[in-house]
Amino acid sequence: MPQLLNQPYPCEEPARRRWAKAFWIGVFVGLFLLVFQPFDLNRWQTPYKNAKILGFGLISFAVTAGLSQLLPVLFPNRFTNERWTVGREILWVTTHITLIAVVNYLYLNWLIGKPFHGIGLLGMMVVTFLIGVFPVGGSVVVNYIIKLKKYSQAAREIPIHEHPAQNRIDEPEPCVITITAENEKDSLTFVANDLLYIESSDNYSTVVYLKNNEPVKTLLRSSLSRLENQLDPDSSTKSIVRNPIVRNSIARCHRSYIVNLEKVEKVTGNAQGYKLHLHNGQFQLPVARKYNDTLVAQLKALS
């Protein structure tokens, strides 16, 4: 069990998906209370009772949406795939449930105009936890297994080219890349086929390339998008990558990474998605879901 809790789990989700989750949690809570009416709600006599009970669902939606939208913005370094696990996901959702219980208890007290004695705050938290923890834990584990199977199997079916680009007989001479920083003074020049990947670091980007077959890292003050534009022949920026082989192999795989697909030696998959392995597995780059199809197609074209 501890090993399962430490397995990687997807964390970085689009905002619309987080809104959708909050909505369905609110619907579940509202309908559950309306149908089963626990906590002595079945004996509660009040005008517009059904509307007031559905208010618990609305509060649950607001609490869930607030946590899922606000905290990742306030603490971005904690809510990343690199740090997220099955155990963290269960704890995160359990935190939602606990806070929902607290706020709904306060809402109930406000509705009746006095402290609710049918069940105390601690009792409501315990009951809510018991109601929610098993479906939450179960759904997280099931989702983990489904995603792990999906990406692991799909990764095994992705063909990887057997020979590096620098050995291609149809490339008469090396293509040289020059990228410049925002100040237009600092620049970096290297053979395109030696590029491994470029990683975003806030207002900087780390360029990782091979020099004498050893990885070298150079930091440039430039956004990743700006460097991507310099490598994109279809951008408004003048292209510096004129070699079609190199041009087709350099691609965005994540919001924080640009990768040279010619250097990908293996593709694996876990519950978070695909992982690209470079330079004898020394570097592992994540693939965001939005790039899955295009990246797989490019890898197949290069094989």
Strand order of the largest sheet: 5-4-3-7-6
What does the overall shape look like?
A: elongated
Order of H and E elements: HHHHHEEEEEHHEEEEEH
Mean pLDDT: 83
- Radius of gyration (CA) equals 26 Å
Span between termini: 39 Å
Q: Number of helical segments?
A: 8
Broad structural category: alpha+beta
| Major sheet size, sense and barrel closure | 5 strands, antiparallel
Architecture blueprint of SSEs:
Blueprint: H1 2-5, H2 15-36, H3 49-74, H4 86-112, H5 121-156, E1 176-180, E2 187-191, E3 195-201, E4 204-211, E5 214-220, H6 224-231, H7 244-249, E6 250-254, E7 257-260, E8 264-270, E9 273-278, E10 283-286, H8 292-302
Antiparallel strand pairs: 1-2, 3-4, 3-7, 4-5, 6-7, 8-9, 9-10
Helix pairs in contact: 2-3, 3-4, 4-5
Structural features, described:
With about 300 residues, the protein is an alpha+beta fold. The protein has two domains: about 1-155, no CATH class; about 165-300, Beta Barrel (OB fold (Dihydrolipoamide Acetyltransferase, E2P)), CATH 2.40.50. Helices cover about 45% and strands about 20% of the residues. It is built from eight helices and ten strands. The chain has helices spanning about 1-5, 15-35, 50-75, 85-110, 120-155, 225-230, 245-250, 290-300; strands at about 175-180, 185-190, 195-200, 205-210, 215-220, 250-255, 255-260, 265-270, 275-280, 285. A five-stranded antiparallel β-sheet has the order 5-4-3-7-6. Strands 8-9-10 form a three-stranded antiparallel β-sheet. Helix 4 packs antiparallel against helix 5. The radius of gyration is 26 Å and the shape is elongated. GO terms for molecular function: DNA binding; phosphorelay response regulator activity.
